[in-house]
Amino acid sequence: MINDFREMTNETVIETDICIVGAGAAGISIAKYLNGSNISICLVESGGFKFEEETQSLYQGKNVGHKYFPLDTARLRYFGGTTNHWTGWCSPLEEVDFKQRDWVPYSGWPFTQKDLEPYYIQAQKWCNVGPYRYQPSDWETDDFKLLEVLPEKLATKFWQFSPAPTRFGITYRAELEQATHIQVLLHANVVEILSNSSAQAVEGVKISTVDKVKTGTVRAKVVILACGGLENPRLLLVSNRVQTTGLGNQNDNVGRFFMEHPLVESGKLITLKDSKPLAYYNNITIRNGAHLRPALKGSEIAQQKYQILNVAVLMHSDSQNEEIGYLATKKFFKALKSGKFSNQFRNDVINMISDLDGLAENLYYRFRGTQKPLPNNTNITVMSYSEQRPNPNSRVLLDTDKDQLGLPRIKLDWQLTELEKRSVRVTNQLIGEELGRMELGRLQLVDWLQSEDDQFKAGGQYHHMGTTRMSEDPKQGVVDKNCRVHGLANLYIAGSSVFATSGNSNPTLTIVALAMRLAEHLKKQVVS
């Protein structure tokens, strides 16, 4: 069932087996996985079913490090969480991302990619993407051949796309609403995690409406924080009534190791001859219903040889004119289906009619699941999606300013190192060498990337990771391999804040897989 806390009695006390804080991809996945297990669950969500300015403003904070987005625009605070503006990119973390690498400080997970694979397979279905197949050999056929790069330098990786994309709050709302052992509690803001007198176990959470008119308590055998890489550490730090430095913060690790995926336009590629294999790296390709996007990356051999991070490089053609008719047709039929016609509808019809040849050509290639050869002299923008090294000085802190609930706001100090910049530069140089060897093109890096003196001019991708990182050694992390907070018997954390390393893959698929893994663990631990 779904209840609105604003309509409940003041000082309400809810008793449950598991309290999940946050109804985003992680929180909804845990509740969905446990549905039917007879374990009672209270899924606590700060917002409602739609965006609300007052609730969203609780995310306001300060950036005091590397230039970053305004914090209240970097995630969404209502049912479904940030999946409400997710663009559908899916790719698992790679095998190398889980390994301890001598050249990457604090690297290594307490389990392998293989251990997570069963959950990745199921996460693919919940995110509504194709089969769990991410190797070139999984997809290559006679009419779908990728670049034959030297494995000591480069490799091809894939993204798949959730075509809608899947909005967890919309897609799984009815299932949660009908679940007999799950209560979704809307407009309930957690203001404190309640611990026992020794801070060795938690007893529940204290909740409040955003206007503070009503407060209450959710008492639980297990509490799971699933409210993102910025809010998870904030809740631990503000819950300092018993443990003065914050729950789980006995080793001063809560909020540290903040990671993003640095994104940078790293250069321009000019093609030297027509190339169908190169065209696949410039577009989404549909194969057997799966929406695929390949990218070039430094191979694991090259990462070790050059002591660099895992960087993927995507290509974007600067000229889209040859697809005008096709793109206009997509917009036309989307408008017909929805019954909503934009001011550009007339122009779309004109573009369809004026580019019938281009439309037919594009439809031919897409129905075949192949691409038109990329012609000579095509100007391509090269974008680098980088891993960030775990860095304890990159962190979430509490500010002196407070929000409407009286909680300290976030102060984000995002820090990058020379390793990120060098990794992007070396990876792009390897790609340039390989494309030159194959006589496909010439890659010119942006000037500042080649300079040792210039700052790394990277942006982010709204991916907040690492702030309650996983480590079997409590001195190097916040949670253990089962996502339980070190030193606390029944407090767990879900989401990308537990990532030990970031890889270059978008985090949503891994968030869902880890949520399933945690739910499976709790199924064995919690007695209903």
TrEMBL record:
<keyword id="KW-0285">Flavoprotein</keyword>
<feature type="domain" description="FAD dependent oxidoreductase">
    <location>
        <begin position="17"/>
        <end position="229"/>
    </location>
</feature>
<feature type="domain" description="Glucose-methanol-choline oxidoreductase C-terminal">
    <location>
        <begin position="390"/>
        <end position="515"/>
    </location>
</feature>
<dbReference type="GO" id="GO:0016614">
    <property type="term" value="F:oxidoreductase activity, acting on CH-OH group of donors"/>
</dbReference>
<dbReference type="InterPro" id="IPR007867">
    <property type="entry name" value="GMC_OxRtase_C"/>
</dbReference>
<dbReference type="InterPro" id="IPR051473">
    <property type="entry name" value="P2Ox-like"/>
</dbReference>
<protein>
    <submittedName>
        <fullName>GMC oxidoreductase</fullName>
    </submittedName>
</protein>
<keyword id="KW-0560">Oxidoreductase</keyword>
<dbReference type="Pfam" id="PF01266">
    <property type="entry name" value="DAO"/>
</dbReference>
<dbReference type="InterPro" id="IPR006076">
    <property type="entry name" value="FAD-dep_OxRdtase"/>
</dbReference>
<dbReference type="InterPro" id="IPR036188">
    <property type="entry name" value="FAD/NAD-bd_sf"/>
</dbReference>
<keyword id="KW-0274">FAD</keyword>
<dbReference type="Pfam" id="PF05199">
    <property type="entry name" value="GMC_oxred_C"/>
</dbReference>
<comment type="similarity">
    <text>Belongs to the GMC oxidoreductase family.</text>
</comment>
